[in-house]
Each structure stands twice: as structure tokens, then as C-alpha cells.
Write a structure and sequence with these properties.
By secondary structure, the protein is α/β, with parallel strands linked by helices. Among the domains are: 24-237, no CATH class; 345-445 and 488-531, no CATH class; 701-779, Tetratricopeptide repeat domain (Serine Threonine Protein Phosphatase 5, Tetratricopeptide repeat, Alpha Horseshoe). A 5-stranded mixed sheet has the order 1-6-7-9-8, sandwiched between helices. Strand 14 and strand 15 (447-448) form a beta hairpin. Helix 26 (633-645) packs antiparallel against helix 27 (649-662). The termini are far apart.
């Protein structure tokens, strides 16, 4: 039995052995150079291998069983909270007679080798939590030190490349440590092979673990692990290992993005354009990746050709038919990731053929009744000259299933979706099939609603090897579809046939920005080719920043469409710029009254009220904005600034922290947070926020100067001087940076050093009054 006392004196392998050939080391010494990150399925197997050869290294995860996704999550969170009583479960498996521990978040089921008859539950809880906290700190230190090889295995299956890449990045985020992943051998990688897959990543191939993927005993794996570890250690130290390990040192694979951001080109329709929007919102701020959308539905432009030829990675959308953009002769060696086109076209059996009168407008590409808003049945009525009212009445009573076999159409659409899914390695068809009867999974045939959009983005991000934390943040934050909000009404016959229980008889559908209309209203307007041209043109001008030109068009448009919340909201901006603040507030109130669920309308009204000094009302509106869309950082920022204006900077800082959590890659938000924290007297939090901003923008001299000022105001002069010197290193000719450093040195009593910096400031700006004034102050 290994008692708790024995655990406390187990060996530490942090200090590496002298550089020597792996074949010269004892079996025990080889085993000591590795630390186990546990495993999925009998996660303590590697620890038992080490014990078999007399090695007893300390390790948080040596006896831990945890799935790869939980290990990645724990690594990415730096094992935050591990060992805290509220996160730790102490238990004894049936018939084991031994205490085990388990973390509530990361599982980490671990043997303690402490018998239940020797230690009570309260004693074990205290002892285990203290030990887990110690081992957490030690693991983090070891990962940062880069002086060990960290091993992981999955008994049930080999990890996917995406899983392995995420695990590798999580380990390497601490420092230059090496991950040694052991997986099942195959025809290309015989048992005993070890290969270098990337700097700091080795893969070992083993014939079997102690238990099969079905959890059946197979036999000891000690010799297999030893051969692999000896080979891996030889590669790690730069020696050529001996047989039978037959190590294969291949050129590093591209497992992580290059230091500069990748140039990623997305080739496809509006669906991949929406994916680019989500990637830029949730990922690009961290990676620096630059995304370009190349439309596949039009001729390839010179810009598109250049983007494709210079891409580091191409995301290509898969269609059933060949697209108009011909890319066959574009020279490119970039790897490709495929994404399926998605549709629920079976819900709209007559969609796809534009209205006979439809055309493009300078301010409305695709026209008002293009493919996503079209109806071929009504088109035939128009061509036949049927009166609008008569056509709509007949259409509403139509037994659609007698005209179109809806079940067969469903089968065909879903079969093609599954074929595209399979070719791209996605699974969207099951999401559609599972939910289309109970919720609106598509707004129109090719514009997904939130669930499908999030599923498509999740699976794409996984293929692009996005950090799991960013994927989960995207999933939490996407509450509104990134696609256009216009809807194509469901025919009542389609609703009855498929049992669409979310469609009520009085259901209204959004048409562009004009308001909400019933199925019959929409069909009648379609027959008459009715749409609000002035409203759409006015909105287009507002989006282009041409507010004065938009005023007359919006006014006329709203006279025709008084239930256009978007129109009233846009008019409020036009009126505010023109100085008509009270009229602007009236227009904003109308937008809110028409669509009170839209956060941006509350935000507009709140800002206008704030400008008029109506701060209590403004706060109520800005809170309504955060309530309506709590995952939008901008709403929290607006409320934060109002709270500070009302003398509550600490409350404002709380809102800014929420904004930073939603957008962790924005240095601007962290700088704002620093200002708020300092205003509320929390200099430590202000310092931490600026330090976070500098991690994102390490070459921003102005941020170092702000950090110097904050530290100076809290009398942390040594640290303030260090920050000021860093600002000067980045911008050595900046006079204000040198006078700041001079002032800090003077406060610390270093008069001579302060004088030197003051003189340098003058030399950099001989005619500058500020530098001379400061020199006079120092003298």
C-alpha cells in the first residue's frame, strides 16, 4: 500500500539527467523523465508503468482518468479551482476499499492509494485538497519549465488530428514543454515507432494498452511503453535511438498556425461569408488571421484570383452544381478545408425562381423578390394574368402535397445534404432533421437560423483548429443568426404536412425592413410587386454615412411603412446629427415600441437620452439593451460609461469585465477597464487590465506609459519606472515618455538620472515648451 506519507516523499524529476545517450540510462531513469497527463480509460496505466520500473515521480495527473476534451479544458484554464473543496469529490468505488478523488468540472478521477480503513472522510478531504492544490502549482511550474516530457494516451481510440492539435497547443501555451502522445500502431506506423510531429510534439505507436478499447484485459504494456519512452527521450535529447523503437524524425507538420496570422480565403456563397463574420468576431483577435470571402456565384475577379493564389488556407464550400467562379487554373498549394452548403429547401417547395419583375438596384443587390424571397407558383399566376386577390385565395387553399410530393422532396433534399456533409466531414443534416418541426431552423431556403448557423460554425472552427474556449464562447454568444433576418413564409399546407408546431395561424413574417406580414399579406404584396423602395434606399444611405441625403427618403418611406422599426431607428440617427435631439428621441422611442426585443434600438434611445441629460431614463434603456442581448459586449460598454457618469465607476467596471469576458481579445476594452478600475480606487485591478492589454499589443508604447502612470499614482515607483523605460524603448524620441520617466525618477530621489532624462527630452524637441518646462522643474 502506498500511504499518503509515501506520496509526499515521492521523487521529483524536474532536474533533467546529464545529456547522455538514451541507451546508457537505466529503465528507471528513462521512466523518470516523463510526467503523465493521465489518460482516457485506465488513465493510471502510465503511472503503473513508471512504478513497475521503480520510478515514483510526483504528478497531479499521474493517476487521473480524463477524456481529451476535459484535459484540454483543464489545461486551458490552468487547472483553476483544482483542489478547492467546492470542486472536489472524495469517494470510494464499490469494493475498492480505497479513497479516490474527482474534480466536478474536469472529472480527473484519481486513485489515492489510501485505504478507507486508515483515514476518515473529513481527514481525507482536507489532505486530498491540500495535496491537489500543491500538485496543481507544481504541474504548472513543470509545464512552464520545459524540462520534462508529458505523456498522454487514449485507450478507446486514436485522437483526431484536431483533438491532438488542440491538446498540443494547450500544453505549449505554458512554455516549451514536450507532449508525448501514445496511440495505437497502424500499417504506416508499426509498434515501437516514435515520430516528431512538430516542435514539442512526439507521437509514439504502441501495439496495445493493458486494456482493449472495449475495456477487456489484454496484458501488461510496460515493455511497449519502455521502448517508446527510450526512443522518445533519445529524440528529445537529440540522439538517434536504437531498435526496436525505430524512431522516425520527420519534418514538423503544420500543427499550429504560423506566427503571423494565416491568410484564409473562404470560397462560396453568403453562408461562408457569415462564417467569416463569426470567425472575425470570436477568433481573429487572438490569431491575427486575415479572412477574405470570394464569391463562388459570380465570375472570379482579379482580386479573388490573387487572394486564392496567396492563401495559406482555403475554405471551399461544396455544392451540388458547378459554381460560376472558375478556380481550376488558379495556382495554389494551400491546403483546403471543405464546408457543405446547407439548406432546408423542402420547407419551401416553390422557392428559387425570382419574381418576373425582380431586378437589381444600386442600393439593393438581388432585388426585393430574388431567389430567397421568391415563389414559382405565384409567378405562374402572374404570367397567366390571374388577379392578385384570386391568386392568393387559391394559393392559400392549395393542397401542396398534391402538387409536390413533400415527403419525396424532403428525402431528396436531406440525402443531398448528407452527401455534402459526408464529403466535407460535417453533420448538419441530423441537426436539421431533429429540429425543423419544433423550431424555425431556417428563415428562408438558404439562410439558416441560429441553431444551424452555430452548428455550422462549430464544426468549421473545429476543422480550423480553433481553441475550444473560443468555440464555446461563440456558442454562448450567438443568440441571433448572422444571416439576413428576412423570412420567406411557410405555406399553411407545408405546415400541416410536416407538423410545424412553431407556426401559429396568425404567424407574421419579416419582409426586409418593412415590418411583419401574414402569409396572405406577403403573397398579395408579391403578386402586386409591392415593396418600399424609398425606405430601402434611405437605409442604404444611412449605412453609407450619407445621413442628410437619407432624411427625405426615410420620412417618405416611413409614411408607407410606419411599422418599420429599422426605419425609425435610422431616422433617429439622421435627426440627431442634424441637431434635432428631441425629434431623434421620438423616432428612437417609436423603434423601441415597434420591436422592443431588439437590443440596438434600446441602445440608440439610451444614448440619445444620455445626451439630453436624462440619465435615469438612459440607464433604464441601456439596461434593457443588455437584457435583450446580454452577449453583445457593446451594450455593456455603453452602460458602463453611463454608470461612471452617474458616479458609479465600480459598477461600470463590473459591466466592462462582462464585456471583456465576451470579447477577450480587445485591448481597447481592457484599457477602458483599467480606467474604470483606477477611477474606483482599485489600482491593482487597473494594473492587471493594462497588463492584459499589453499581452495583446506588446509593442504599444502608449499602453506602457499608461501603466507607468497607474503604477506611479499608486506609489509603485520601481514598477512604474520599468514601464516607462519600456515605452521609451519602443519610441525613444517621444518627449512625453522621457519627461514621465524623469518625473518618476525624481520622485524616487534619483535626481541625477531624472536630470539626464529631462535633458534627453529637450534634445529630442529643442523648441518644445513642455520639455523645457519640465527641465526647469527638475533643476
Amino acid at each position: 500500500m502506498m500511504t499518503s506519507e509515501r506520496l509526499d516523499v515521492a521523487e521529483d524529476a524536474r532536474t533533467p539527467l546529464p545529456d547522455q545517450n538514451a541507451t546508457a540510462l537505466s529503465d528507471r531513469d528513462i521512466a523518470m523523465q516523463f510526467e503523465s497527463l493521465g489518460g482516457s480509460g485506465h488513465g493510471w496505466e502510465f503511472g503503473l508503468f513508471q512504478r513497475h520500473y521503480g520510478a515514483e515521480p510526483l504528478g497531479l495527473l499521474r493517476w487521473a482518468d480524463l477524456a481529451p476534451e476535459l484535459l484540454i479544458k483543464a489545461l486551458e484554464s490552468r487547472f483553476e479551482g483544482v483542489g478547492d473543496v467546492e470542486n472536489t469529490i472524495i469517494f470510494s468505488p464499490e469494493n475498492s476499499g480505497e479513497w479516490w478523488t474527482k474534480d466536478k468540472r474536469y472529472w480527473m478521477a484519481m486513485r489515492s492509494f489510501v485505504k478507507t480503513v486508515d483515514v476518515t472522510l473529513p481527514q481525507m478531504t482536507k489532505m486530498a485538497c491540500r495535496r491537489l492544490q500543491f500538485l496543481r502549482r507544481k504541474l504548472i511550474e513543470d509545464l512552464a519549465a520545459g524540462e520534462k516530457i508529458f505523456a498522454y494516451k487514449n485507450m478507446f481510440r486514436n485522437l483526431t488530428q484536431a483533438e491532438l492539435n488542440r491538446l498540443y497547443r494547450a500544453v505549449r501555451s505554458y512554455g516549451d514543454s514536450t507532449l508525448f502522445y501514445v496511440q495505437y500502431a497502424d500499417a504506416q506506423h508499426p509498434a515501437g515507432t516514435v515520430e516528431v510531429a512538430a516542435p514539442g510534439l512526439m507521437i509514439g505507436y504502441i501495439e496495445h494498452f493493458a486494456f482493449s478499447p472495449e475495456d477487456k484485459p489484454v496484458g501488461p504494456s510496460h515493455e511497449g511503453f519502455l521502448a517508446l519512452c527510450r526512443a522518445a527521450y533519445g529524440l528529445w535529447k537529440g540522439h538517434a535511438p536504437a531498435e526496436p523503437a525505430r524512431a522516425v524524425a520527420e519534418p514538423p507538420k503544420r500543427a499550429v498556425p504560423p506566427k503571423r496570422g494565416r491568410r484564409i480565403v473562404l470560397l462560396g456563397n453568403c453562408q461562408v461569408q457569415a462564417m467569416a463574420h463569426l470567425y472575425n468576431r470570436f477568433v481573429s483577435g487572438r490569431t491575427g488571421d486575415v479572412l477574405t470571402h470570394v464569391a463562388s456565384y459570380q465570375d472570379l475577379s482579379a482580386e479573388g484570383r490573387e487572394a486564392l493564389s496567396q492563401a495559406d488556407l482555403i475554405v471551399e464550400q461544396l455544392f451540388d452544381l458547378k459554381q460560376q467562379a472558375d478556380t481550376d487554373d488558379v495556382p495554389s498549394t494551400a491546403p483546403r478545408v471543405f464546408i457543405p452548403m446547407v439548406t432546408a429547401a423542402f420547407l419551401w417547395p416553390f422557392a428559387g425562381q425570382p419574381h418576373p419583375q425582380n431586378r437589381d438596384y444600386p442600393f439593393l443587390t438581388g432585388g426585393p423578390y430574388g431567389g430567397e424571397a421568391a415563389d414559382s407558383y405565384l409567378n405562374r399566376q402572374l404570367i397567366a394574368g390571374v388577379a392578385p386577390e384570386e391568386a392568393v385565395e387559391a394559393y392559400a387553399q392549395l393542397d401542396v402535397n398534391k402538387r409536390v410530393n413533400l415527403d419525396r422532396l424532403f428525402e431528396l433534399v436531406m440525402d443531398r445534404q448528407r452527401a455534402r456533409d459526408e464529403a466535407a466531414g460535417f453533420n448538419i443534416a441530423d441537426v436539421i432533421e431533429k429540429h425543423f418541426r419544433t423550431e424555425q431552423v431556417f428563415l428562408s431556403p438558404y439562410h439558416p437560423n441560429t441553431r444551424v448557423a452555430a452548428a455550422l460554425a462549430t464544426q468549421l472552427f473545429e476543422k480550423l483548429e480553433v481553441d475550444r474556449a473560443d468555440i464555446e464562447r461563440m456558442q454562448r454568444c450567438v443568440r441571433i443568426t448572422p444571416f439576413p433576418k428576412g423570412e420567406l413564409p411557410f405555406h399553411p399546407g407545408v405546415c400541416r404536412h410536416f407538423g410545424l408546431n412553431f407556426v401559429t395561424p396568425d404567424r407574421r413574417y419579416r419582409f426586409m425592413n418593412e415590418g411583419l406580414f401574414t402569409f396572405r399579406d406577403y403573397a398579395l404584396r408579391y403578386m402586386r410587386y409591392e415593396w418600399n423602395e424609398q425606405l430601402e434606399e434611405g437605409l442604404s444611405l444611412v449605412h453609407k454615412g450619407k445621413l442628410p441625403e437619407a432624411r427625405a427618403l426615410l420620412t417618405a418611406g416611413l409614411a408607407r411603412s410606419p411599422r418599420s422599426a429599422a426605419g425609425h431607428n435610422a431616422l433617429s440617427h439622421v435627426l440627431a446629427q442634424a441637431g434635432a435631439q428631441d425629434d431623434a428621441i421620438t423616432a428612437a422611442r417609436r423603434a423601441v415600441s415597434v420591436e422592443p426585443e431588439v437590443a440596438s434600438y434600446h441602445a440608440t434611445l439610451g444614448n440619445l437620452l444620455r445626451g439630453r441629460g436624462l440619465l435615469e431614463e438612459a440607464e433604464a434603456e441601456l439596461r434593457a439593451a443588455t437584457d435583450a442581448e446580454p452577449t453583445e459586449p457593446h451594450n455593456h460598454v455603453l452602460l458602463a460609461h453611463l454608470l461612471r457618469q452617474r458616479g458609479r465607476p465600480a459598477d461600470g467596471a463590473k459591466r466592462l469585465r462582462e464585456a471583456c469576458a465576451l470579447d477577450p481579445y480587445s485591448p481597447r476594452l481592457l484599457v477602458d477597464l483599467a480606467d474604470f478600475c483606477e477611477a474606483s480606487g482599485d489600482h491593482t485591478a487597473a494594473d492587471e487590465a493594462l497588463a492584459g492589454a499589453l499581452k495583446l499589443q506588446p509593442d504599444d508604447a502608449a499602453l506602457y506609459l499608461r501603466l507607468a502612470h497607474i503604477r506611479g499614482r499608486s506609489n509603485r515607483l520601481d514598477e512604474a519606472i520599468t514601464a516607462a523605460k519600456e515605452a521609451i524603448r519602443l519610441e525613444p524620441k517621444n518627449v512625453r515618455y522621457r519627461t514621465t520617466l524623469s518625473d518618476l525618477l525624481l520622485r524616487q530621489g534619483h535626481h541625477e538620472a531624472a536630470l539626464i532624462e529631462a535633458l534627453r527630452a529637450v534634445l529630442h524637441n529643442v523648441n518644445g515648451g513642455h520639455a523645457h518646462a519640465h527641465l526647469g522643474h527638475v533643476l
